[in-house]
Amino acid sequence: MTTTTTMTTVGHLINGQLITPNERRQDIYNPSTGAVSKQVALASVATVEMAIAAAQAAYPAWRDTPAIKRARVMFKFKELLEQHAPTICQLIGEEHGKIAHDAAGELQRGIENVEYACCAPELLKGEHSKNVAPGIDSWSEFQPLGVVAGITPFNFPAMVPLWMYPMAIVCGNCFVLKPSERDPSSTLFIASLLKEAGLPDGVMNVVNGDKEAVDTLLTDARVKAVSFVGSTPIAEYIYTTASAHGKRCQALGGAKNHAIVMPDADMDNAVNQLLGAAFGSSGERCMALSVAVAVGDAAGDALVSKMSAAMTALKVGAYSDSHNDFGPVITKQHQEKIRGYIDQAEQQGASIVVDGRYPAVPGYEDGFYIGGTLIDGVTADMESYKAEIFGPVLQVIRVATMQEAMDLIDAHEYGNGTCIFTRDGEAARYFSDNIQVGMVGINIPLPVPVAYHSFGGWKRSLFGDLHAYGPDGVRFYTKRKTITQRWPSAGVREGVLFSMPTMS
Fold first, then answer.
1. 297-302 contacts: CB < 8 A, separation 24 or more?
2. Phi and psi of 425, rounded to 5°?
3. With b meaning 16 or more CB within 10 Å and e meaning fewer, what string describes 424-447?
């Protein structure tokens, strides 16, 4: 007897409905096992245009909804995210490979952006000047753009979308999200909670897809702005294409984040901090610290010795075991790519101190695992140094002076995040003041800004003028309008009203 199993297909959220048209399909893998777990529908041009049309139709009513009512939806949405956190973390783990504690941290940082969006009535207040001339008043307003779009990466399927659409929506826009096709289930589930939170149909839409869907969003005249997070080559393509079609665009790209380890640093603390920053989430973070720049051989020797000893306790394995420190990488192809970078470093003369190319994970031999890897003797001309490896690989470069370390960082094409480990306040102040990097940590290895600041790098880590979320998010998803008003005397006055006035 032959039995057939129907593969679950992840579809789209359009106009408040989950739909699965007869479209191209792509496999979704469980990286912990290496097996295909689901399929995702890849949206056609027609499907994306349907989502844009739904957003366009919903916009006039949503634009005119008072900011306080829009904020109330976000209050309820936050409550639902907290209520469904275990389910969301499970979905992240199944398709990304994140361990539960890491997924919970990701979700919490996303929720914090929803909390910030709840402040919309305050954030959207304009400025007013009375009597700029006799009998003339002037004021400015923040008005929504219309239909806006977000294109998000696989490494943070919950957090990065929550950087975008809560603020966009609460500002009065309607949204079309194109998440990563690698791990779309958690993103789709989270977006579907907005309907339960009271969001009208059409205001939030999700289309899964590949380049065909992306290009449709970038070229459709109804889409007024695009926010993107991903690799630098794609970020540059997104920015240039969107801009060429008259759209506002912020495109956050890749990173090669350096940590300077000074001779006076608390080395034990630096090692502990670097363990999580380099290997957490399998190094698949745009804020991962992938290069440690040791100032002086004494600092370098101590760092490598203590780090290699500490790494013996690192546990890589399936997302379902909360005792693991980190899980697999996202695909078999990415696993092989990371191994290739490690091979290149070795061939070019670097020393593989801790080799994680082929870790043993009993019971999960087909999973996409790379163990924590420590490479010493790296130089700036090595391919592994130039590239964003995006895996659990920490490279150590040795320099003679702090200035040499800073010059090395400033010379790299990326300028996303960096940090310094030191006890010297003056050195830290000089570093933070002069380094050409957008986000700086002082004895803090992952200086990701909180929700009420803004996230963004410099140089080729960001295309566009405004950073993600926080105050820049409000500016990105609104346009300023200034009104100047004069009323000539006409002798007309309103009648008397004794009831309490309301804004309802």
1. 297/398, 298/263, 299/261, 299/262, 299/263, 299/265, 299/267, 300/261, 300/376, 300/396, 300/398, 302/267
2. -65, -35
3. eeebbeebbeebebbbbbeeebbb
Distance CA 320, CA 448 (A): 26
Backbone angles phi, psi at 366, to 5 degrees: -95, 0
Q: How many other CB atoms are found less than 10 A from the CB of residue 245?
A: 14
Q: List pLDDT tens digits, range 17-41.
A: 999 999 999 999 999 999 999 999 9
Extract the tokens encoding 202: 């059409």
Cα-only R_g, the chain = 25
Distances (CA, A) of 411 to 268, 404, 408: 29, 10, 5
Tens digits of residue pLDDT in 43-69: 999 999 999 999 999 999 999 999 999
So where are the chain's domains?
9-253+461-482, 257-442
CATH topology of domain 9-253+461-482: Aldehyde Dehydrogenase; Chain A, domain 1 (3.40.605)
118 is catalytic: no
Contacts with 89 (C-beta within 8 Å, 6 or more apart), sequence order: 98, 100, 103, 104, 107
Out of 171, 249, 286, 419, the active site residue is 286
Which CATH architecture is the domain 257-442 placed in? 3-Layer(aba) Sandwich (3.40)
CB contact at 8 A, 91 and 28: no
Tokens encoding 473: 């998010």
Q: How far apart are CA 349 and CA 344, in angstroms?
A: 9
**pLDDT tens figures, 357-406:** 999 999 999 999 999 999 999 999 999 999 999 999 999 999 999 999 99
pTM above 0.85, yes or no: yes
**Residues in contact with 131: Cβ distance below 8 Å, sequence separation at least 6, in sequence order:** 137
